[in-house]
Amino acid sequence: MSGSAHPYQPRMPQAPEASPDALLEVEDLKTVFHSEVGTVHAVDGVSFDVRPGEVLAVVGESGCGKSVTALSIMGLIPAPAGQIVSGRINFRGQNLLHLHSEERRAFRGDRIAMVFQDPLTALNPVHRVGAQIAELIQVHRDVGRKEAWGRAVELLKLVGIPGAEERARQYPHHFSGGMRQRVMIAMAIALDPDLLIADEPTTALDVTVQAQILRVLLDVRDRFGMAIMLITHDLGVVAGVADRVVVMYAGKKIEEADVHTIYGNPKHPYTWGLLGSTTRVDRPRLEQLTQIPGAPPSLLAPPPACRFAPRCAYVQPLCRTEYPELRPATAPEHLAACHFAQLDGWEPGPPARELASRQEEAV
Amino acid sequence: MADGTVDHQPGPVPTMTPVATGAEAAPTVEALGLEEHGLSQRTLMWRRFRRHKLAIASLVTLVVIGLATLLAGVLSPYGYAEQHLDQILQGPSAKHLLGTDQLGRDELTRLLYGGRISLLVGLGVALVSGVVGTLVGVAAGFYGGRLDNAVMRLTDLFLSIPLLVLLIIASRATGGSIRDIVLVLSLALWMFLARIVRGLFLSLREKEFVEAARSIGASNRRIIFRHMLPNALGVIIVSITLTVAIAILTESLLSFLGFGIQPPTPTWGNMLEDGRPQMTYAGWLVWFPGLAILITVMCVNFLGDGLRDALDPTQRRVRA
Amino acid sequence: MSVATEPAAIPPRSGQELVRVTDLVKHFPITSGVFVQRQVAAVHAVDGISFSIRKGETLGLVGESGSGKSTTARLLLRLLDLTSGQVELEGEDITTASGARLRNVRQKMQMIFQDPYASLDPRMTVRDIVGEPLVIWNRWKNGGSVRVAELLERVGLNPDHANRFPHEFSGGQRQRIGIARALALQPKLIICDEPVSALDVSVRAQILNLLANLQREFDLTYLFISHDLSVVRQVADRLAVMYLGKIVEIGDRDELYGRPVHPYTQALISAVPIPEPVKERQRKHIVLGGDIPSPVNPPSGCRFRTRCFKAQEICAEEEPALVDHDHGHPSACHFAEPLELIP
């Protein structure tokens, strides 16, 4: 007989106001992969900031480059097939790409930590869970084994693992999916990092467990004040936890805004399509869901100008000849990569097509 | 690094530090959207094989060796039992390119004829043990349960008998003909392939496309031959290739021990055995057969490597 | 071990019924032993469930991992043998059908699988894959090729690509191939096992729309299995919620989403995030503690009690029957009470 006595847990208090000075600045990042059929431009000139204490969601479908962006930041792009060809990744003003691998290692886990989709990739199956965390602490901090172990157990308690003392002595396969994810979070926060990158942390979990894990992430953020870069394709999750949102498509950033604007007043047709085609538990059944025709383009030879043009319902000739650079839409902080994003009344629906063609003629 | 590339090796980090693993590894073809360029499986296979230069070279070498042994009669003016007692133990010369042995027999000729037998045995064993091993493995892996249990106990039994003992007993019980040798060696080697195939089939059985085949009404036979075997073929072929190598080596062992093919018929193995006592003053009697075995086995192994890469359908990693 | 479901739980037999499942049980034995395998325990994957599916409707089967929903699908198709229970198709008892009779039955029931990458044989061309059912059933000779082309077109693929291999297609396209294969024998029932879970959001909508259109066009009946409640809301007419091998609630779609009465259903619905920030952050969230118990040793009495916020002593002693507690549809809870969780 367990479970919460108070089933309705109130939402966590809003995060402390995120300060505008960026913690992480990604500038024009370009990462490619060399393959037997050509060069894949996985991330093709992406820039964004992560501010201290905020939750930034990076949203997109498979192949958009969101995971590769995270791996680039962490320095986990496998050479020689993968290569960061240009750009800067500034962490607190220091360009991570100019560091030697030794210094890079000091950052990883310590200042920037990562949580993966599959906990089994990060957890070593032949070592006890507590030992793995303790070792991490021992390596990066000057503490003895006992103290490190004590801290490890504390961390396991913090992420909500019952009976942390005993469970620290167990192996990863003794834990369920959700519990393993908690362990991974514990490991990630062990060194009190400034930034936590979570790459699809709940995608492989059941939805009731997902809710738990998201709560743990937010709890940890409130407690330690770290920023979280959350990578996901789940628009529901983003709506529940994010402060700001970056939308990626085919290796590019195509929209960025605070969470309320992205959902309430998006200005890029791809974002419209995504929101429209998402199934919702709060909406009665529709005859047909809005669908985006076709599929994302090949990153070997992306479309010349706007990458979304082949699938866009509002496409104009201009879209195929000139790349729509990111421009402010409803506010300076709201960027959209669409030629018509700044038009009055730019909203999904037939009128938008009118607007676009009229604008096209005027130009 | 200054040029923007990043060294992903975490350096001398203790193995337990998990956060820094690059376990995501190279993105797969699907993730990068590379599927739609219209290449068939066969083309991809050939491309992968072609890249294995060593495998190509090995294939060529093996073909050359095979042809040479077949054309022994044409290539050499001597017979393999022809004795020239006035020219015993001569080193390589213009008349006898690889020298002669203690009975004046031409080494090159013996090497070529001997190669025939060695290669024949190798291929024969590979075929027989391949078929038997595959059948056993399929039965065990596909049906599972008690059949699997029984079959695997039998396999384990064979595996636990020391190879040498098995060979000695079996060759005593049979004659020394090539057919008998092939049977004896196959007896000793089928178990390895059986295990591999069993493992493969056990895992293939759980694959969704096998389930899908069942759901559309496919019979067991159809599922095994149309769906599972083609997907296991890569591994089976590679395994058989490797068995060729093992068979040639083991045949040499048999001859070396005095069983197997009897003189005057040469095999690379019994040539080694013959030459051994005279090694100090007639080294060529040992080097050449030894070299022949070494080269053949190495080539077979490289070929196996190349085939494995080419035929493996799960090989979709993006390569530099 | 199964609790007999009250008659009220299943609507009475009607001519409109395509499938009827009664007290379905599937236990997977866990054996141990070196030479002789003995059963030492069992995984209670499905532990006594009953439901029916009417012609032309879509029944959603919802649950998380360990719920038994996928096993149920395979039991229906007889890809697995039942431990006990009964399956009826068009009024005919097919529980023990085997050999030729079973293969006959298979023509009427087809399945669409979850993983578009694994459910197609990588060594067969698309034509072979979609045409295989026809070959097996001797329908290839008279225009099998044409039929394959028709099917491919119907699911939105270019028939000229029939010579290609699965790896040359995207995930969404592969799923379409799987759908074409399922349609080849003109089945009455199609079981969709998480057909869109492995697909991107924008592709999901395409496939869901396709499935809806096909249902209308070919008068198909669907059993739609998913863990994603938002998807099920879009496709199902009725749905059943499963937990650890049992059905805990079953009823009409809008009723279940609007006023769920079983605590697990309520927790599930509240856990599915809504893609609208204000709504999502202001709504009531029920967060369950603990993990899903092991199906090898399910809790006594009500299986959900270890995570339930309403659990009382009686829940451990007495397993609640799946009955309508005057809410309009059956639920298996001693304290069932409607709750509105969708703003």
Structure, described:
The complex is a heterotrimer of chains A (about 375), B (about 325) and C (about 350). Chain A has about 375 residues and is α/β, with parallel strands linked by helices. Chain A has two domains: about 25-250, P-loop containing nucleotide triphosphate hydrolases (Rossmann fold, 3-Layer(aba) Sandwich), CATH 3.40.50; about 250-360, no CATH class. Chain A is built from 13 helices and twelve strands. Chain A has helices spanning about 65-75, 100-105, 120, 130-140, 145-160, 165, 175-190, 205-225, 235-240, 260-265, 270-275, 315-320, 350-360; strands spanning about 25-35, 40-50, 55-60, 80-90, 95, 110-115, 195-200, 225-230, 245-250, 250-260, 325-330, 335. In chain A, strands 6-7-8-3-9-10-12-11 form an eight-stranded mixed sheet, sandwiched between helices. In chain A, a hairpin with a 2-residue loop joins strand 1 and strand 2. In chain A, helix 4 crosses helix 5 (about 145-160), helix 5 packs across helix 7 (about 175-190) and helix 7 (about 175-190) packs parallel to helix 8 (about 205-225). The relative contact order of chain B is 0.15. Mean pLDDT of chain B is about 75; it is low at about 1-40 and about 315-320. Chain B has helices at about 40-50, 55-70, 70-75, 105-145, 145-160, 165-175, 180-205, 210-215, 220-255, 270-275, 285-310. In chain C, strands 6-7-8-3-9-10 form a six-stranded mixed sheet, with helices on both faces. Chain C has a four-stranded antiparallel sheet with strand order 2-1-4-5. In chain C, a hairpin with a 5-residue loop joins strand 1 (about 15-30) and strand 2 (about 40-55). Chain C has eleven helices and ten strands. Chain C has helices at about 70-75, 100-110, 125-135, 145-155, 170-185, 200-220, 230-235, 255-260, 265-270, 275-280, 315; strands at about 15-30, 40-55, 60, 85-90, 90-95, 110, 190-195, 220-225, 240-245, 245-250. Chains A and C meet through helix 7, helix 8, helix 9, helix 10 and helix 11 of A and helix 5, helix 6, helix 7, helix 8 and helix 9 of C.
In short:
Chain B contains eleven helices and no strands. Chain B is elongated.
What percent of residues of chain B adopt helix (DSSP H or I)?
A: 55-70%
* Overall geometry of chain A: globular
Global morphology of chain B: elongated
Structural class estimated from helices and strands of chain A: alpha/beta
For the record, the CATH class of the largest domain in chain A is Alpha Beta
Task: Output the radius of gyration of chain B.
Answer: 25 Å
Oligomer: heterotrimer
Low-confidence parts of chain A lasting 5 or more residues at pLDDT below 50?
Answer: 1-19
Beta content of chain B comes to: under 5%
Tally of separate helices of chain B? 11
Q: Greatest chain-chain interface?
A: A-C, 59 and 64 residues
Rg from Cα of chain A: 22 Å
* Cα separation of the termini of chain B: 19 Å
In total, how many beta strands of chain B?
0
Largest sheet of chain A: 8 strands, mixed
Number of individual domains of chain B: 1
The level of helicity of chain A is 25-40%
Mean pLDDT of chain A: 87
